[in-house]
Amino acid sequence: MELTGKNVMVTGGAGFIGSHLVDKLIESGCSKVVAVDNLYLGKEKNLEGAKATGKLVFYNANAADENAMKKIINEHSVKAVFNLAVVPLPASLEQPVFGYMENIEITSAICELLRKDCFETLVQYSSSEAYGTAKYAPMDEGHPLNPRTPYAASKAASDHLVTSYHYTYGTDTVIVRPFNNYGPRQNEGTYAAVIPLTIKRILDGKAPIIYGDGLQTRDYVYVEDTADATVKIFENVKTRGKAINLGSGEETVIKDLIEKINSIVGGKEPIQYAPPRIGDVDRHIADISLAKKLIGYSPKTDWDVGLKKTISWYLNQTRIE
């Protein structure tokens, strides 16, 4: 399936991964990319490059509002929806019912519009958090879904919902299950992930924090590699009805990561330890063999190169601000 000449939608399009996907979709030849984001976490400035191409249309709207989404999809003759809209994990710890229900309602609304033939193809974004901590490693797509947080539960439930629509109604769907993305534009404020949070604390003259013993592991993948793979997943019809891991296939120990960032940025405060975070998984490492088989996937960005590019971006943002 070609993207050239198609009008597509990205929900959560002003967010971290969403904005990079918007850029990639435009680069891949889409006639128009409709980005929908309620700016709960996303930022319009993330779309500045896309706006300059003249191929972006942006709506500040809630993707859970089925009627509003239907109107936008019809107005722009959208053929495919990439659903990345989400209430993030840290927010779900503070507002569990809101976080869980909002994420389910977003997926439900999109699935219903697909069932009613308002558009043709859904690429649903899941999360490695749906797996919980590793029962075995590496974690393939057959790994049990054992969510530890309301956020993770909402992602697991959304995956089941999308899959059920595929089998019940014959909808054209695929689930992308990314592991820990990093790179430019990742939110560094409220609900920040460990990399931007650590960078920001160091730049603010504060001590980096390790939660728990720091021996937890994550599988980090550079955001542009995820966006590139997502496009290839859409284009390959053999991916339909499947969930597909996107990661690096390598483990990074959190303690080592924070020490490395502290060294690169030049932190002067000793690293502090804090109690473990609620629902934190112990181990994550992706089995990416299915993505390799289906789309020839292999992460292009070396970990050290990607981390330095990420840190450089945050340093430049600080200078600009």
Can you walk me through this structure?
With 321 residues, this protein is an alpha/beta fold. It has a single domain, classed as 3-Layer(aba) Sandwich (Rossmann fold). Helix content is 41%, strand content 16%. It has helices at 16-27, 48-52, 66-75, 89-94, 96-115, 150-169, 194-203, 223-235, 254-265, 289-295, 303-320, and strands at residues 7-11, 32-36, 56-59, 80-83, 121-125, 172-178, 180-182, 209-211, 217-218, 220-222, 243-246, 252-253, 272-274. The longest helix has 20 residues, at 96-115. The model has no long low-confidence stretch (mean pLDDT 95).
Could you provide a short overview of the structure?
41% of the residues lie in helices and 16% in strands. The strands form 4 sheets. It has a 7-stranded parallel sheet with strand order 3-2-1-4-5-6-11, with helices on both faces. It is globular, with a radius of gyration of 19 Å.
